[in-house]
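Bench log, entry 3. Co-assembly request; chain sequences pasted below exactly as received.
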Amino acid sequence: MSSTTGGAGRRPRILVTRRIPQAGLDLLAADSTCRVLGGSLPPAREQLLSAFREGWDGIVATLTERVDAELLDACPGLRVVANMAVGFDNIDLAAATDRGVLIANTPGVLTETTADLAWLLMMAAGRQLVAAQGYLGRGEWKTWEPQALLGQDIHGATLGLVGLGRIGQAMARRARGFGMRVLYTDEAPRPEAAAESGAEYRSLPDLLREADFVSVHIPLTRDTSRLFGDREFGMMKPTAVFVNTSRGPIVDQGALYRALRDKVIFAAGIDVFETEPLPLDEPLLKLENVICTPHIGSASVVTRNEMARLAARNALAGASGVRPPSLVNPAAWRTPAT
Ligand code: GLV
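Structure output for the full assembly:
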């Protein structure tokens, strides 16, 4: 389904690649001529290319659209692509910057919601929720059992944060309430970010060796792709719980499967995968020491509305020659001639 809203004239023209929350569409409709391509599923590549060729000042995209040189070249007058996500690994940033196209994302508004999900996965994996439900469903619950389904304590444990950006810091704040010791690793120590929670800096190998819970909060880049493999899981404690709510390709999924199957680590909570949607024959789905969710880190009503609004504001600004509030490639920004 596609729809056209807004008036004509000198209003900026904005394409929305797929249906996003109405809160964002309302902002776009008020100040632009806006078309929503497709419906709840992402548009096919050919559909996207042909829509780009219609010429737009701005695009609102989601993380399911690969915005690359081919797509950008199909829309020569394009000024801005506003991604409705904090991650922007679906966008070829260099190609956009070379062409002077502004790229914006939605940081801040999803921080706490994503940390909530990471926390939930950490607790669910640590306390064996999937195995507990399976045990009950198979009729194995015969009596209160002193030694069945024993998990790992979260309170008082050591949390290792891979990345102390906004979401990592939100995790560190939660950890204080659970009396946890917090370690973190990042490209370099971040004393200011760590001050609030007292998080201690470690190299990645040291963090993996010391932490009881390891949670990943870094962007996917060439440097972080497959950061976690057999070697890294091998460094972790056999009682450790691994959580990933960032991007799937940061983890070698085969290595994670082996680590869980062979009890190299205790459990995992995973929201993001190498291939999304996760194929139903994915071996991870057969294990009971992993809880898998379908990339829902930011999926609360309030947060998705805020993300849609921020993406709309970014698109409207960039398309009108104003610097978008959350620009990620300032090198592409040129003050418009007055
Ligand atoms: C979701 O994964 C996001 O990057 O916002």
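The first strand starts at residue 3 and ends at 5. Residues 63, 85-87, 110, 297-298 surround glyoxylic acid (CB under 6 Å).
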